[in-house]
Specification:
The protein has a seven-stranded mixed sheet with strand order 3-4-5-6-7-8-9, sandwiched between helices. It has a two-stranded antiparallel sheet with strand order 1-2. About 35% of the residues lie in helices and about 15% in strands. The protein is globular, with a radius of gyration of 21 Å. Helix 5 runs parallel beside helix 6. The longest helix is centred in the middle third of the chain and has 19 residues. The chain has two domains: about 45 residues, no CATH class; about 220 residues, 2-enoyl-CoA Hydratase, Chain A, domain 1.
């Protein structure tokens, strides 16, 4: 056997990168190398420095909700390409890649759930789908969740993890900022509570709209939260930025958020807030206010 045949045989015997098991993970905060299972069991929080790593939508739903209580709505809503947008890739290609990567139709998962037996409407962003960007479908799912919260007199919780508005939809995406904000105003007028949970990152058009409109606004430790990036801000104002600028601790110190809640305490905190704001648990009736929202068709549950 010559060396070329030997090397080919060795290469064939090695697993592809995608097949290789990731037994270890390096903490982005303290650079410690840890066994993946240890980090996973700790809700993807570093046990050494408390750095909160990014969390998938499914894992977050499992963390927050009572077991088996989450029922997803509007599963079949998916983005279209009204502008036939192409940059390095076509928008259609990016959508299909996001769907293949996450196994879901869009960057938002919305539905009804229970937290400590208290019914809530829950919206969770999936950062793995095009950076959790806000497009027409994501805005529509949020508005439909607001309508369900209004109809059923249930608290609304939105967990944001987003880079901002989706550039591939241009003005269609930007209009979701006003659309979701207008829907939340109706929710507020009817005294239905909205709890906004900001995670790493919450930026751009998401932070500039519904994410900042919560009756209670909380964040995970160390989350990056803001509108424009630090480099853009620094170039615009021509000055150095304070230490920890745009991190949740800085925002709490300056009164922009109400609390920082570690991931392990998130479920209990949300349960307490829902109980306090709604004076639950009670079984609520099925009455609804017709005509407040145009949802462009029946929702798919």
């Amino acid at each position: 056997m010559n060396f070329g045949d030997l090397f080919s045989k060795i290469r064939r015997a090695q697993p592809e990168a995608s097949e290789a098991p990731a037994h270890w993970v390096k903490c982005p905060g303290c650079a410690s190398l840890m066994y993946f299972k240890e980090v996973e069991q700790n809700h993807h929080v570093c046990p050494k420095c408390n750095y909160h790593m990014r969390f998938s939508a499914d894992e977050r739903i499992t963390l927050i909700c009572d077991e088996g209580s989450f029922v997803e709505c509007d599963k079949t809503l998916e983005p279209v390409d009204p502008l036939k947008f192409v940059d390095k890739k076509s928008y259609k290609k990016r959508i299909s890649e996001g769907q293949e990567k996450t196994g879901r139709s869009s960057a938002v998962v919305a539905g009804e759930a229970k937290i400590s037996k208290q019914p809530v409407q829950l919206v969770v962003f999936d950062f793995n789908f095009m950076g959790g960007s806000l497009g027409s479908v994501e805005g529509e799912k949020i508005v439909r969740a607001v309508k369900r919260a209004l109809d059923k007199k249930q608290a609304l919780i939105i967990v944001s993890a987003s880079g901002g508005a989706r550039m591939q939809e241009s003005t269609y995406s930007l209009m979701q900022m006003s659309k979701t904000s207008a829907a939340l105003k109706i929710l507020s007028e009817n005294k239905i509570p909205f709890i906004s949970v900001l995670t790493d990152p919450t930026m751009g058009g998401v932070s500039a709209s519904f994410a900042w409109l919560g009756d209670i606004i909380i964040a995970e430790p160390g989350a990056l939260i803001g509108f424009a990036g630090q480099r853009v801000i620094k170039q615009t104002i021509g000055a150095d930025l304070p230490e920890g600028f745009q991190r949740s601790e800085f925002l709490l110190e300056h009164g922009l958020i109400d609390a920082i809640v570690p991931r392990a305490q998130m479920r209990q905190y949300l349960s307490d807030m829902v109980n306090m704001l709604t004076n639950t648990p009670v079984q609520l009736d099925d009455s609804s206010d017709e005509g407040l929202f145009d949802t462009h068709g029946e929702e798919d549950e």
